[in-house]
Amino acid sequence: MSTPTRVWISESAHQRLHDELTELRAMLARDVDGSAGGDENLAAIQRVRQVRIQQIHDLLVYAVVGEDPPDDGIAEPGMVLTVRYDEAGDTETFLLGVRGTEHDGMEIYSLQSPLGAAIAGARPGEQRVYRTPGGSSISVTLLAAVPYGLHRPP
Question: Where does the Transcription elongation factor GreA/GreB C-terminal domain start and stop, copy by copy (predicted)?
Answer without folding.
Answer: 74-143
